[in-house]
């Protein structure tokens, strides 16, 4: 018989991922491929008179919460006025020392509250040392 997996435990295999903090901690030093897909809802429409300027959404995967140019993966999406649901993906490779962590950041310059929906994901796979 099929059983519904726990929401938190779904596709959770191997050490390193802390579901409370949203951080993946590298068990050993090496190159890791990271991937995240976020389903984001804009909660309220842009107010009248608020131009399109600045309505961008940056999604980053950063090492040790430092989002400098050389230690992160980043994508920038333009929030079009039509539609309130956006899907943003970031994928790439980062080098982590043993014990370093990587996590996802959302930089919201849209001027509207954003909510990350369930069904979003974050994964890390060791490629090699």
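-> sequence recovered:
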């Amino acid at each position: 018989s099929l059983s519904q997996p726990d929401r938190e435990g779904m596709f959770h295999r191997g050490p390193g991922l802390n579901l409370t903090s949203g951080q993946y901690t590298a068990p050993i030093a090496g190159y890791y491929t990271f991937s995240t897909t976020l389903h984001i809802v804009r909660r309220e429409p842009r107010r009248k008179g608020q131009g399109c300027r600045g309505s961008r959404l940056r999604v980053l995967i950063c090492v040790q919460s430092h989002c400098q140019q050389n230690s992160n993966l980043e994508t920038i999406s333009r929030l079009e006025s039509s539609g309130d649901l956006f899907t943003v993906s970031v994928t790439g490779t980062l080098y982590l020392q043993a014990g370093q962590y990587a996590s996802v950041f959302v930089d919201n310059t849209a001027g509207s509250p954003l909510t990350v929906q369930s069904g979003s994901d974050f994964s890390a796979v060791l490629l090699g040392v």
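The first strand starts at residue 17 and ends at 18.
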